Amino acid sequence: MREGKEEKFSSDLISDLYTNLLREIWEIVSALIGEATLTLLFNQAIRKIGEKYPFLNSLRVSEEGLALEEVKRGCRNLPPGEIHRGFQSLINQLSYLFSVLTEGVITKELLPKVLPKVREAERMVSKK
Amino acid sequence: MEFITFKDLDKLRSIINAISTGVEVKGIIDSAGTTLPSLFDFSAFGVLWKEAPTLHLFQEESCPRAFTQEVVKNMLKVFSILGEGPIEMERLTLQVEKKKLRNKQKVMDPEASLKSHLTLPLVIEGEIIGCISINSDQANMYNVPRLQFFSVFGYQMAASLKHIQRFSTVKKEAIYDTLTNLFNRRHFEERLNAETQKAFENESNLSMIMVDIDHFKKVNDTFGHDGGDKVLREIASLLKNSVRQHDTVARYGGEEFALLLPGTPLDPTNMIAERIRRLVENTPFNMGQTQIRVTISLGICNFPIHRMKSKEELVKMADLALYEAKKGGRNRVCIFGGE
User: Fold this and answer.
1) What SS3 class is residue B306?
2) Given Cys at both, which of A42, A78, B77, B323 links A61, Cβ 3.0 to 4.6 Å?
3) Is B126 in contact with A40 (Cβ distance < 8 A)?
4) A55 vs chain B: nearest CA distance in angstroms?
């Protein structure tokens, strides 16, 4: 029972960390390439990664921004490792799309902000 | 770190103005290709337009062939990664325009390869209508401010191209009959106006053929409106393929068609009408399990032979000739006045 509670707690922490990170990515990249293009890229990445991590399909993206509540709710019943891998794959796919379009221009802006948070999530999962 | 200056913003404004005023795809792309070098350093600028599909490339005069191929390959790759599926090279029209973008000292190396690029999808209302790309043979050519400029430019480009796409759809709908894909009555009237004016002024030949499907109501009653529509579409196609490209073929009303043949004297018009009549008579129309035969009646008239003085008179004469063909037993061609 206690273990279940702890796992739930760390699932919440990891989903919070990643959803905040996605918000940050949205803020940075939308200022570079605009909301319409970024929406398209997010939706494309979700479609692809959502096949393996279906909880990501509840992540809603529009030109107004990201709607993260539903995906956060969905994460509550998932093991932290699964959440971490899902979000990490999504961020990797986004980075791949950014590099395909603009080579290093977007990635260079993102990397200093994204990398530390992904490492933090890794630490949290490995501690468990 | 490069900062955006007012001068740069001014250049961007000029580029956007230039592409916003275009009324056709080629014009917009030409404006972009001409104005972009003021803000971006590139060896090739490309616009991939999905609808055609066409890839327009503006590039430095000294751009080697291998570089062009690399740019094309990269743009197609990016477009396919964006989830639009691959565009086959055989289906793609490539339009290359070479311009002097650099001074003499900076002529491109014949061995130059693609070292940096910015490629962005042209997105409008969530739909990708193409992509744009600036490409250079120099490494690390583009940075954050250039990307921001390029994305603003891309948005305007997408909006302008979409506007043209919509405009051409509306234009098409305004002149074509949606069922048969022939010109509609309204466009026919416009063509009639122009052609009669020309013929009356120059005393040149202008013939008109009015066509009506015989017993069309029976086709509709027996095979339903879908069957009737099928016959209309197929006859429309036979008519269109029986005349020259500059002749006008239109759906005049329900099962009635009108043909305008500028520069065609009466005798050849009669031969064309007879050929069409035979063609329809000998064409089997498939209606599910059964095949049916359909015939048509045709009435023709000609300027200057019939000395009409107005376009209304021309139509009336062709109509009267058609009436004669119907009265005479259908499946026949009648010339106005029984000549």
Assistant:
1) coil
2) A42
3) yes
4) 21
As a whole-number percent, the residues of chain A with pLDDT over 70 amount to 91
The pLDDT mean for chain B works out to 91
Q: Which pLDDT value is given to residue A121?
A: 80
Place of tokens 């509670």: A5
CB within 8 Å of B214: residues ≥ 6 apart:
B294, B295, B296, B297, B326, B330, B331
Q: Taking the CB of residue B174, how many other CB atoms lie within 10 A of it?
A: 10
Longest dimension (CA), chain A: 49
Best mutation target among B76, B144, B149 (most A Cβ atoms within 10 Å) is B144
Q: Is the pLDDT of residue B2 over 70?
A: no
In 3D, which of B244, B233, B243, B257 has the Cα closest to residue B185?
Answer: B257
In chain B, which among 67-86 make CB contacts under 8 A with chain A?
A: 77-78, 81-83
Which chain A residues are within 8 Å of B119, Cβ to Cβ? 100-102
Q: Which of A35, A44, A102, A113 to mutate to probe the B interface, most B CBs <10 Å?
A: A102
Which superfamily does CATH assign the domain made up of B185-338 to?
A: Reverse transcriptase/Diguanylate cyclase domain (3.30.70.270)
- Within 123-152 of B, beta carbons closer than 8 Å to A belong to 123-124, 126, 128, 140, 142-144, 146-148, 151-152
Residue whose C-alpha is closest to residue A126's, from A91, A88, A84, A93: A84
- Is B144's CB within 8 Å of A37's CB? no
Residues 46-65 of A with CB under 8 A from B: 47
User: Domain-by-domain residue ranges, chain A?
Assistant: 2-127
- Give the Cα-Cα-Cα angle B274, B275, B280 (nearest 5 degrees): 100
A100 inside 8 A of chain B by CB: yes
Tokens standing for residue A109: 């802006």
Specify the pLDDT at position B23.
Answer: 76
The answer to whether B48 and B82 have CB atoms below 8 angstroms apart is: no
- B119 and A100 within 8 Å at the Cβ level: the answer is yes
Tokens encoding B339: 């000549």
CATH architecture of the region B6-173: 2-Layer Sandwich (3.30)
The domain limits of chain B are 6-173, 185-338
**For range B233-250, the mean pLDDT:** 96
Cα–Cα distance, A109 to B181 (Å, whole number): 53
A35 touches chain B (CB under 8 A): no
Distance CA B221, CA B22 (A): 50
Q: How far is A68 from chain B (nearest CA, A)?
A: 20
